[in-house]
Design brief:
Elements (H helix, E strand, L loop, with lengths): L6 H30 L12 H12 L14 H7 L15 H10 L7 E10 L7 H7 L25 H5 L9 E7 L4 H10 L1 H7 L9 H14 L3 E9 L2 E8 L6 E11 L3 E10 L2 E10 L10 H25 L3 H4 L2 E7 L17 H14 L2 H6 L2 H7 L38 E7 L8 E7 L11 E8 L11 E14 L14 E6 L5 E3 L17 E2 L4 E6 L14 E10 L2 E11 H8 L4 E13 L2 E16 L2
Parallel strand pairs: 1-2, 7-8
Antiparallel strand pairs: 1-11, 2-4, 3-4, 5-6, 6-7, 8-9, 10-11, 12-15, 12-16, 12-20, 13-17, 14-16, 17-18, 19-20
Length: about 625
């Protein structure tokens, strides 16, 4: 009798079975894909027409030169993402629209709640960008779909981000935080006059402000505000020397956001830095825009001295990064999440040849062209000065940066596309790095990291990144809400403490200082906030000392809102003749400890390992035992 039914009757019978089978198949495939993880840039095989088309769109990416997003309502993207069943009503007409809306609703992914943070950096090379270049760089009106869409390049998706993770970041609406940093944003005539006018002041005090609204930045300011739109509140705009930084927050969050502090550093020989801390709903986000000076033009081209010249230049960059971080009270330790971005000017420096002889400049150019032709990103990364500095703990080892799966961003010709000026070694000069002092599910996730090759007015290609900060709430049992928790630290010991360069390892007299600014976290009356001093050792131990804290949860904010962003700082101090100095600071996320122990009356962890940091570098290791005991409400 099925042959006697009309089309609508067949569809009513078919739809429930197809929906159930499609849902089970999709869930099984996504589970298998997620368990396999992200594999070296290759998409995992998918079964089914819909998954194959969707996977091809995910890996194919932006078509060259197009600045449009197909994930913003275009028919092409949605028609391929949805399952379409074409039927005929007998007269030859297509009736697929009857099921299209239902299928599109059925394949909608669940999204995680959190902050979407857009960070962009561009060295303008003393030229105001044209409209086409700026439109390719900035998300139009802050729309997330401009960066998070189904046509994103596979080279732009950060390694380790699976398709499921990518789809769980909401691509609808507008990003919550938008941060832009511009270097060399003043036109050449203004920049030269600025260098002359402020030369004496910069050499004496190290910093100077340029009046906001300079004629050379008015046009840029108007263009940026037009692209950002009226749905954002400008929290900070700072012009320092020839560096310009903007921090925008979506207007619906502006009432709970504020800029707490801004530190600037400027030096004619070292570079410039602007560090600002933004608080959004109790979470501290620090943004540090830098431009490090590079004296590559003064490095001799002779084989005998080129290595020494490069090493001296690299050592100065590493020291400048540490100086800039420490000058701003080291926000990499005081904030929850920290972003360092800008023209860091770290170069690609190929290793010596097989005979152990340093490459000449001409040999390096040949090596660079060969690696770029082959798109050998791994070899380029191994020769990247920043990657090596982080690996060797010379600079910024406290941070992470996504792997670069694209062409170096400098030195380019002022044209759209990839056209190098080989007078300088092609390098990843423009970078974005991130650090999270919060652990577990509260870490910042890098989702998209990409250069903008359509930018045609600069010697640099801008970099932009889309980062996601998931929400985290502490849920207590409503039938058995705790009154307080006791946190105890025992068996404290340090290893490989790294003093300043002018202090010998045998001259270290370390002790630990505990501090926490949260009002609900108090030191126990029977405990001290510091350990005893151990003398002349870089491997101190405190086996008998106990540090105990009590966390009060009996306030009106007992459900975790008050402590979800609480950090505990453990400073390793060196007791010297002229007073105590900080060797490094370890940061413990108390909210993460609470999340691990909330369902247990007593919880403990042994031999926990963490690091001391100072100026963005590791300065030693800390080991401890931790025990949590919960006090139930009476």
């Amino acid at each position: 009798r099925i042959f006697e039914l009309d089309h609508d009757q067949i569809s009513s019978i078919y739809r429930p079975y197809h929906s159930s089978i499609s849902n089970m198949t999709r869930d099984r495939e996504e589970k298998e894909h997620f368990s396999r993880g992200h594999s070296s840039g290759k998409a995992s095989p998918r079964s089914g027409t819909r998954d194959k088309e969707e996977n091809e769109r995910f890996s194919r990416g932006h078509s060259s030169g197009s600045g449009k997003s197909s994930g913003n309502g275009g028919s092409g993207g949605k028609d391929k993402m949805a399952i379409r069943h074409r039927h005929s009503d007998g007269s030859g007409n297509d009736t697929s629209h009857r099921h299209h809306s239902d299928d599109r609703h059925r394949i909608r992914r669940t999204t995680r709640k959190g902050l979407r943070i857009f960070v962009g950096t561009a060295n303008l090379s003393q030229a105001i960008p044209d409209e086409e270049s700026l439109a390719a760089f900035l998300p139009n009106k802050g729309k997330a779909a401009y960066v998070l869409n189904s046509d994103v390049k596979s080279s732009s998706v950060v390694d380790g981000v699976s398709k499921k993770d990518f789809n769980q970041v909401d691509r609808h609406g507008k990003v919550e935080v938008l941060v832009l940093g511009f270097q060399e944003c003043l036109e050449s005539t203004v920049a030269n006059g600025l260098s002359t006018a402020f030369g004496g002041l910069l050499s004496k005090k190290g910093s100077a402000d340029v009046p906001a609204g300079n004629t050379s930045t008015k046009e840029l300011d108007a263009m940026i505000n037009a692209h950002v739109g009226d749905d954002y509140t400008l929290m900070m705009e700072r012009l320092q020397a020839d560096m310009l930084v903007y921090i925008y927050v979506r207007s619906d969050l502006a009432s709970s956001a504020s800029i707490t502090e801004t530190h600037v550093q400027t030096s004619r020989s070292k570079g410039c830095s602007i560090a600002s801390t933004l608080i959004v709903g109790g979470t501290k986000l620090s943004f540090i825009c830098m431009q490090l000076k590079d004296k590559e033009q003064f490095v001799p081209r002779k084989n005998s001295t080129i290595s020494a010249g490069k090493k001296a230049t690299l050592d100065q960059k590493n020291a400048t990064v540490e100086e800039f971080l420490l000058a701003g009270k080291d926000p990499s330790l005081s904030s929850h999440h920290i972003f360092v971005f800008g023209d860091l000017n770290y170069r690609v420096s190929p290793p010596s040849n097989t005979r152990g002889v340093t490459n000449t400049f001409e040999e390096e150019q040949f090596i660079a062209r060969n690696m770029l032709t082959k798109k050998d990103w791994s070899s380029i990364s191994e020769s990247d000065e920043l990657v090596q500095a982080m690996k060797n703990n010379d600079a910024l080892s406290a941070f992470t940066t996504p792997f670069c799966k694209f062409h170096p961003t400098y030195k380019m010709q002022r044209a759209s596309g990839i056209k190098y000026d080989y007078s300088s070694m092609p390098s990843y000069a423009d970078r974005i790095l991130v650090r999270s002092n919060q652990e577990g599910s509260r870490k910042v996730e890098a989702i998209v990291y990409e250069p903008i090759h359509q930018f045609s007015t600069s010697l640099h290609k801008p970099m932009r990144g889309l980062f996601f900060l998931p929400d985290r709430k502490i849920h207590f049992d409503p039938n058995n809400e705790p009154k307080a928790m006791i946190i105890t630290f025992t068996h404290l010991k340090g290893k490989k403490l790294r003093p300043k360069e002018d202090i010998l390892h045998s001259d270290i007299n370390p002790y630990l200082q505990f501090c926490c600014d949260a009002r609900c976290v108090k030191m126990s009356k029977s405990s001290k906030d510091r350990t005893e001093t151990t003398y002349t050792t870089d491997r101190p131990t405190w086996p008998t000392q106990t540090i105990r804290y009590k966390v009060d949860l009996s306030s009106s904010k007992r459900h975790g809102d008050e402590i979800k962003d609480t950090l505990l700082h453990i400073k390793c101090m060196n007791e010297g003749i002229r007073g105590a100095t900080v060797l490094g600071t370890a940061v413990i996320d108390l909210a993460n400890v609470i999340c691990k122990s909330v369902s247990k009356e007593e919880w403990q962890q042994r031999e926990v390992e963490t690091y001391f940091y100072r100026g963005g570098r590791q300065t030693g290791k800390l080991y401890y035992n931790i025990k949590v005991r919960w006090e139930e409400n009476e």
